[in-house]
Design a protein that fits this description.
Blueprint (H helix, E strand, L loop, with lengths): L6 H15 L2 H21 L11 H6 L5 H9 L3 H4 L5 E6 L1 H5 L7 H9 E2 L11 E5 L5 E7 L2 E4 L2 E6 L6 E6 L9 H8 L1 H8 L3 E4 L5 E6 L2 E5 L2 E4 L1 H5 L12 E5 L2 H15 L11 H14 L2 E3 L4 H4 L19 E9 L2 E6 L13 E4 L4 E5 L2 E4 L4 E4 L4 E5 L7 E9 L5 E10 L4 E8 L5 E6 L2 E2 L12 E2 L7 E2 L5 E2 L6 E8 L6 E11 L5 E6 L1 E6 L3
Parallel strand pairs: 1-7, 12-15
Antiparallel strand pairs: 1-2, 3-4, 4-5, 5-6, 6-7, 8-11, 9-10, 12-13, 14-15, 16-32, 17-18, 19-22, 20-21, 21-31, 22-30, 23-29, 23-32, 24-25, 24-26, 24-30, 27-28
Helix pairs in contact: 1-2, 8-9
Length: about 525
């Protein structure tokens, strides 16, 4: 009804048109509808109220409490927007609030981001917390606490009537726009910001692309590409502000993060002395996924909600989070949710001093019923055999990787497997496998051959058939085979001298004592030595 301030004239015109165009019973409905609208209008805003038929910008200019706001609007030529026959809701700091404005505030951006909303908004719609989109596309937070309303933490002290083209709310403090998660990370946690934003890649959108021909058995498209952000697909679209979507992050501040990496560097030793030495590749590939899996939650959660015994992360997975480790005074309000900080943040030792394990079945992808293909980073040389991920009793992941070469295979075969992002130092390589099928193997780490097979008198090259016997670990412990024939053999590795990928290569040298030959992996592990 705000579009037609002269209700009586508009109603008479509509009724005359209705007599000509619609049957009498529909006409009755039309009359009742407009009568009802008129009653509602009269109930809330009397037609005799002089403020109803006035313009928003005219009324603001008559208010001495808003002279600072008026001056800034005119200085930045935003008054042309307010006289453009659109409707607005303005949240206006009074002169006292503007007197405390920090020198660092960019006024023009502040006005567009924060004070002008391109619609007419009523506080009666607020129950607890809502978002209101401003002209720049950002969202401000409006909250009801007890009987008071706050616009980005600035208390609303007065509201105007609804004028012909909008209304205003007066706020007693200077409201600062809430940063989005993306803006907060950019300014406060640059490592996380870069990780999230620099992994974006373009992907073919087949729904929008048009197939134009077949070439070498492949469909060629008139291509349309879309940008994909793996973080946003898995966790939360931090680069977009929306009215409905909220999330909660439990993180750290930059000072805490640097201190945690300093402790980590000291424990690693060798070439590592401070946070600046910890490779970014390790932070992004190992540390950040663990942090986000355990620290990103759906909706804007209170500390009490984060203390729930069945707390689920944003993927719906159970998370064990110690609520006493979160500083309740650290809560940061963002336009799309909350960020909490820990009292103290430490990088778990297990992420860099613990075992790095590769399960055998993780080396292949399923491509059909009992059909598998090697992962891209697994390199096979020599004869080609199809790998199989088979269910195995007593296996670490319930499955093992098996390559069946048949009986008495005498050809060439080798396999290279990569451990990603390993810190330098002495490590123990553990190979857990079955004695059937067997084969004689040489093992190389970063192209250096291991030569410690004689520890268990297993012969040289190593014959995996001997895994059926108890074997002495390089640690002095005894490794015994399971009832299914799975056992471990291990070796010291002393040539990992810099951070990066570690390549383990198994070269088949000939048939083992058991005539059915092949390659078997329950798992491979690299375990840093503590000595």
């Amino acid at each position: 009804m705000i579009r037609f301030p002269n209700i009586h004239l508009y109603s008479r015109y509509t009724i005359r048109r209705a007599f000509l165009l619609i049957p009498g019973f529909i006409l009755a409905l039309v009359i009742l509808t407009f009568t009802g609208c008129q009653e509602i209008w009269d109930e809330h805003y009397s037609a005799s109220d002089p403020s109803v038929n006035k313009l928003l910008w005219d009324e603001i200019q008559l208010n001495d409490d808003f002279s600072s706001f008026e001056d800034y609007i005119k200085e930045y030529k935003l008054d042309t927007i307010l006289t453009s026959n659109q409707r607005f809701t303005l949240f206006i700091p009074n002169n006292d609030a503007f007197s405390n404005i920090p020198d660092t505030v960019e006024i023009n951006a502040f006005l567009l981001n924060h004070l002008i909303s391109p619609n007419i908004f009523s506080l009666g719609n607020i129950e607890e917390l809502t978002k209101l989109q401003t002209l720049s596309g950002k969202f401000a937070l409006i909250q009801k606490i007890d009987t008071s309303f706050y616009y980005d933490d600035a208390k609303i002290v007065r509201q105007s009537p609804v004028y012909l083209d909008g209304r205003y709310y007066e706020v007693e403090d200077f409201p600062f726009a809430k940063p989005s998660f993306n803006e907060y990370f950019r300014d406060k946690l640059p490592a996380i910001y870069n990780y999230i934003n620099f992994q974006v890649y373009d992907s073919l959108d087949k729904n929008q692309s048009t197939p134009i021909r077949i070439e070498d058995g492949k469909t060629i498209y008139d291509s349309v590409f879309i940008s994909i952000n793996p973080f946003e697909n898995r966790y939360f679209a931090i680069s977009k502000e929306s009215r409905e979507d909220f999330a909660t992050f439990v993180l750290f501040n930059q000072e805490q993060y640097n201190a945690a990496l300093d402790v980590m560097a000291d424990k690693i030793g060798s070439l590592y002395t401070s946070h600046e030495d910890i490779p970014l590749a390790w932070q992004e590939s190992i540390l950040f996924p663990v942090i986000f899996d355990n620290g990103v939650f759906d909706n804007a959660l209170s500390l009490e909600q984060l203390s729930a015994p069945n707390l689920l992360n944003i993927q719906g997975e159970k998370v064990v989070l110690d609520p006493t480790s979160i500083d309740p005074n650290s809560k940061i309000d963002c336009s799309n949710g909350y960020i909490y900080e820990f009292y103290d943040f430490q990088v778990p030792d297990s992420l860099y001093l613990g075992e790095v394990r590769i399960e055998g079945e993780s080396l292949v992808d399923s491509i059909g019923s009992n059909k598998y293909a090697w992962k891209e980073d697994v390199i096979i040389s020599g004869e080609i055999f199809e790998p199989i991920a088979t269910n195995t009793t007593g296996a670490s992941g319930d499955k093992c990787l098996v390559v069946d070469m048949g009986r008495s295979f005498t050809g060439n075969y080798s396999i290279e497997i990569k451990f990603r992002n390993i810190f330098p130092g002495r490590h123990r390589l553990e190979w857990r496998a079955n004695y059937r099928p067997s084969g004689e193997y040489k093992i190389f780490v970063n192209d250096v051959e291991l030569d410690q097979y004689d520890t268990n008198h297993m012969g040289y090259p190593l014959d995996t058939y001997n895994l059926q016997n108890p074997l002495i670990s390089v640690t002095g412990e005894i490794n015994r085979p399971t009832s299914a024939g799975i056992n471990s053999v291990d070796f010291w590795v002393d040539n990992i001298t810099q951070f990066g990928d570690v390549v383990v290569r198994f070269e088949y040298m000939g048939s083992g004592e058991y005539q059915v030959n092949g390659f078997f992996v329950d798992y491979l592990s690299l375990i840093p030595s503590q000595n």
